[in-house]
Amino acid sequence: MRVAGLLLAAGAGRRFGTPKALVPLDGKLFVDSAAELLRAAGCEPVVVVLGAQAGEVRAQATLDGVTVVDNPHWETGMGSSLRTGLHAIGTADAVLVLPVDTPGVTVGALHRLMELAEPTVLARATYDGEIGHPVLIGSGHFAGVMASAAGDQGARDYLKANTVRHVECADVADGADVDRPEDLRPGIRRRTGGA
């Protein structure tokens, strides 16, 4: 099964004070760490969607071995970035969708979802029973997700309307979103860590 990786990194990060793609952690920008994580897990291709300060992100980030696309409508929310990224994926059996602001996600968590990959699958990581990221979307759902993705909901409405497998990942990753600088608590795992 060919599993693509889709990194959503277009937001302005208003609560953080800067686009989260540009936030450094352990000497790397969030966007580089997340892209490297998807590549390390074996995702092919890896598509990175940029929006806010896209030129600055391109100037500062490495983004090796990935396809970078701009979402001209990024201000409308995550839904437009999801649509932009799915259009850019091309042929794949499934896609792992990861927001740039979840630095505690690990290869171990990605592999748990990737094991379920097939065109009909919908699955998402949970952390101690709380739903989180990444989300695995089979290719048979791409059209439905693109049709329903709007605003900041992303695929939420589509996932609510369909059967989704929940995959517990708290033992191998930290699924917390980093919305504000104080959320970068000590001990948060680096993306490439974990089993």
Please outline what is shown here:
It holds the Pfam family NTP_transf_3. This protein is 26% helix and 23% strand.
Task: Give me the secondary-structure topology.
Blueprint: E1 3-9, E2 24-25, E3 28-29, H1 30-40, E4 46-50, H2 54-60, E5 67-70, H3 78-89, E6 94-99, H4 107-114, E7 122-127, E8 130-138, H5 142-148, H6 156-160, E9 165-168
Helix pairs in contact: 3-5
Protein name: NTP transferase domain-containing protein
Keywords: Transferase
Domain MobA-like NTP transferase: 5-162
Keywords:
195 residues; alpha/beta; 7-stranded mixed sheet; two-stranded antiparallel ribbon; 6 helices; globular; disordered C terminus; transferase; NTP transferase domain-containing protein
Average pLDDT reading: 93
Overall geometry comes to globular
Helix tally equals: 6
Structural class comes to alpha/beta
Largest sheet, described in full? 7 strands, mixed
What does this structure look like?
- InterPro entries: MobA-like_NTP_Trfase, Nucleotide-diphossugar_trans.
- GO terms for molecular function: transferase activity.
- Keywords: Transferase.
- The structure is a single chain.
- By secondary structure, the protein is α/β, with parallel strands linked by helices.
- The protein is globular.
- The C terminus is likely disordered.
- The chain is built from 6 helices and 9 strands; from the N terminus they run βββαβαβαβαββααβ.
- Strands 5-4-1-6-8-7-9 form a 7-stranded mixed β-sheet, with helices on both faces. A two-stranded antiparallel sheet has the order 2-3.
- Helix content is 26%, strand content 23%.
